[in-house]
Each structure stands twice: as C-alpha cells, then as structure tokens.
Amino acid sequence: MKIKGIFKDGQIFWHILMFILILISVCPILFAFTGSVKTLEDLYNGGFFPREIIFDNFKRIAAAVPIVRITLNTFIIAACVTAFKVITSTLAAYAFVYFDFRGKQIIYFILISTIFIPFTVTMIPNYLTISKLGLVDKIFGVMLPQLADASGIFLIRQAMRAVPKPLTEIAHLDGISELRILKDIIIPVTRPAIISTGIIFFINSWNEYVWPTLILRSNENFTLSLAMQVFTDSEGGVEYTMTMAMAVITMILPIALYLIFQRYIMSTFASSGIKG
Fold first, then answer.
1. Beta-carbon contacts of residue 56 (< 8 Å; ≥ 6 apart)
2. In CA terms, which of 28, 73, 169, 250 is 20 to 30 Å from 47?
C-alpha cells in the first residue's frame, strides 16, 4: 500500500527529485570521507571507494601542524561565541517581549535590519578596531566582534512570544524578580528554541573562515578551517588526500551536533513564523 501511495497523483516525481537533491548534498561529504583514507595514487586513479583503507593522512596532519591545539582553538572560539550570543540574545529577546519602553519597536527594527548588512561592509571597521586594541593574531580578536547576534534575538523572541503572558503577570504579582521569571518560567518553556539557536551559532562559528583569516597569523593560533590552507599551496600543489582528511576532522563535531539536536533546529525554524 505504501509503494502504491508513492506513485499516486504524480508523487513519484517529487520523491525522485528529493532523492537526487539528497545525493547532490551527501556525495561531496562521502567523497571527502573516502578520500581521506586513500593514497594519492588511489585518489587519482578514480573510483569512489578506496582500494585500501589507510590512516597515514591523519598521521601526516598531526606531524605537519599542531592539530590538537588548532582543534582546541576552534572549540574555544565556537563555544565562547555561542555562549555569549545565546546569553545576549535571550536577555534581549526577553526585554523586547515582556518590557514596555519608549522606542521599543524602532530599536527592534534597527537590530533586525543588521541581519541584512553584508559582512564585507563591517569587515574593515572591525579589523581596524581589533588592530588598535592589539588583538591581531589572538583568538579573542576573532571572538570580540561576534558576541551578539540579531538573528538569535529574532528566533528566541519568536519562541518567547508563544509563552502565555498571564504566567509572568502572576509571577509579578507574587513579587518574583525578572531574572527569576526568566530562569524558572521562560527559559524552561523556550529551551528547545534556545538550544537549537545555540547549535546554529556553534556550527557557524566552527566553520567560519574569512574573519579568522584576517585576524590570525601563526599556525598555533589557527582554527581548523584555516589549517586546511596549509595543504592547499598554489605554488607547491595541493595535498588533496590530506586536505580531505582535514575536512573530515573539521566536519565531525558539527555533523554530530546537528544529528543530535536536529529536531530542535527544525522545530525552531518551523515555529519562528507562527507569530510576527
């Protein structure tokens, strides 16, 4: 019965199209995983699967760059940026939903409009600021301009708008402080949205390339995305198998986080448009 349902009303076309899109999305990832355990000769000879699985590429990476330090740098940057963005977004969203103050809608509009400003517009001012502060080639220089995010305010605000206001009004009548209302009432209800927003922040920060390229100089301060350029020399050639091994190392944690928390991410995006 299920097979017949697929062919009903032309649904077979959409299933085939979806399958093709999935293949297009997944094939580069699978190719990177298989290429990371191949020899360079095996990679050039073609074939999707390796004739012999080897792990020498990962050993060569560990010998070429301080991979543990680089991975730790990436994690520290992503974790700190995520923590600050989640905290600032949650506090700002709570203020925009439950506080009444003059110019609230205008301030919110200005904040949300910053989402549409291209990174290239703010890149030079941010770099000059970081340079004057003496934070070039320091991981804190990468983190500083990213401690708040308007998209996080938008997503968490949408989730908070779904919380019935009588809950907070009763708490106010009982003399409960705003921070306690936020901690004991609002955050438990909106936890899925906060978690999913945090995961999105973490993955974006983990994969960031352009801004760390401007700030970081030395190998020991590199992030994983920057470390891949060590094996991509335009003059000396590209170490494809080692580059793929670096890509695999870079992908493992974001993919694992997404697989664990995907239902929170999907539910947040699905519910973000319910209330405007």
1. 39
2. 250
